[in-house]
Write a structure and sequence with these properties.
about 350 residues, mainly alpha, disordered N terminus
Amino acid sequence: MPNELTIVAPRLCISQKTVNVFLLSIVYALFVVFFPWELVSRGGFPDFQNYIDNFTYYYTRGVSQFGEYRLDSIAEYFFREALWFELVRWLTSLTGDAAIALRIISFFILFIWGLFLFKRVGYGVALLFLFNPFFIDVAMSGIRNGLAGVLFIVGLLTQSRALRGTFFLFAASIHTSLLVLVVLYYCAKYSGKYFKGDLLLASGIGIAILVGLMPTIGGEIIYSLTGDRRVSLGQATRWTGGSLQMASLWIILLCMQCMSGRVYVKQNIFVIALIAWYLAMNVFIPWSYRIWATFLPVIAIAVMNLPLQKRQIFIYLYSGYTALQYLYWTKLFYYWYPT
């Protein structure tokens, strides 16, 4: 009997954990997107409603927002965050509803962050960070911050320098504050090659504080270079500042990181700089909390890299911190915080 030619198709090997992470990320994203937060959140999602009004206005008239501005240079077009407006306008024209378009982006943000964390830490720890109320606020209301943050992290995970730079460019085209993260990333990367120990730590924190002060005391300089009108917001809110109570946990984390040894500092200098940037901004600008909220999944990885005792202490502190945040953020204990 002649031998039969048997063609064996190559098997695609996908681990069970990968499947579980993928499905869990979908469930998590769908739950957050469809949960009736209006019954829970005392402040609602005002940015979301503003986005709806804005993009509905331009969609119904069939024009681009950029038609109302005179853009004198490519730099100004870039700093007007063209990618964000054109993306949402395109999704709105595709779905016929700005709210649906924005919720598609919310789902994407939540799904990517779910994939990122569920794959790297335990499911319980991942959910503890993913259900932080201010993280949910970024994904469901401060959507532009969330989308820019997601693209930035995707860039961090890529191996190609050119592709990484492209994602960084996309992120900054959605929210120009991401340019600060790009500066911090490359400063941290190259500082790690030339500095060690305390010098590396001081350089990372020092650069973060410097760029944190720029939108407040350096607003006019930034405006003259970029033409970005929104830098005036920093001038208007210069001395109002953010919440010291909210910042207290991140001060503790920064201190723990600084005392975790040279190896930890070298491996996590970017996150250390990120937290220092937030703390510098918090002195002047109330909405600076979106810095840590947007990058909470990345901070979670740095937390899990802490030495065991410090990690355990911080997780306990963070759990209590999150519970207190919910007391303020939700209507469940409305009588504690009457309007």
